[in-house]
Amino acid sequence: MPMKTWGLLALKIALSGALIWYFIGKSDLGAVMESLRQVDAATVVAVLALFLAQMVLVAWRWSALLRLVGVGKGFSFHEIVRTVWSATFFNTTLVSSVGGDAFRLWTIVRAGNPLGKSVNSIFLDRLTALMALMILIAISLPYVMELIADEAAFLSYALLIAAFLAGFAALFHADRLPRRIQHWRLVRGLASLAADTRKLSMHMNNLLPVAGLALFIHLLTICVIYVLAAGLEIEISFLDCFFLVPPVILAMTLPISIAGWGVREGAMIVSLGLIGVSQESALVLSILFGLGITLAALPGGVIWLFSRNRTVPAMPDGEAES
């Protein structure tokens, strides 16, 4: 692994560790342990089932995008599910420097698919997940503003949504850059991505199924939080989770920590604190969420371990699935 990658990994581990240490230090450990004892086996089973269902839906979304861009040769849906499961394992563990997106890309290219279109399929998968998340955040905005009543917070939400729309518009027209630079390899790649983005966005028979899956995947994350909250006897409604969890999902996808650890806990404490959930309860809820997705992903590591080719690519670290 290159020294630069080691350094980046070390920084992420340090940030995650420091944040977790800080939040635990600021919490009542007795209350934390008491909350943990309240979780029963039925809650654990329900959470694992939701995470596994989510991975299948992520595979379904990606398979649709593979077909859209014209790749996926030699891959059945069963194999795509296995790939997504193993990719989730890489995202949630420190067994290597390889992230889930890098693993998916390497797997699909190794099967003989073109690199450029394979990259497009993964980028569009990420884009649709982010698009669905922005829709949920926009829907939740009036509710959150009633809780915060802070103009700066409102502007932050509005700027976040505006930045996404501006970025999407720029990508949409990325193949209209000046002709004198259109021969550059990067520009050619952007042009191909822009064409595939329009193919997805401007045809409802392509957009609706993918967008619907992306929204449902996020809803399953919200359901996981709600089920864990019920298991911890935290008084929070499903609507509260629906409105307050999307910003937490966004925070934990930021590429600044290990699988969202630390950043997710901070976002959960702030978000649920708006409706009076204690720091201890929000911290335990977030930690259990992280442990749940890690446990659900472990069979993906077994799948990879017993695959015919266990080598992994020397690519940069990726981020958690959404």
Description:
- This protein is mainly α.
- The chain has twelve helices and no strands.
- It is globular, with a radius of gyration of 20 Å.
- It starts with a helix and ends in a 17-residue tail after the last helix.
Descriptive labels:
322 residues, mainly alpha, 12 helices, globular, disordered C terminus
Mean pLDDT score? 84
Residue share in helix:
over 70%
* Assembly state (oligomeric): single chain
Overall number of strands: 0
Helix and strand succession?
HHHHHHHHHHHH
Distance between the terminal alpha carbons, to the nearest Å?
26 Å
Low-confidence stretches: 315-322
What Rg do the Cα atoms give?
Answer: 20 Å
Biggest sheet overview: none
- Based on Cα principal axes, name the global outline: globular
Q: Briefly note the structural class of the backbone.
A: mainly alpha
How many helical elements? 12
Task: Name the beta content range.
Answer: under 5%
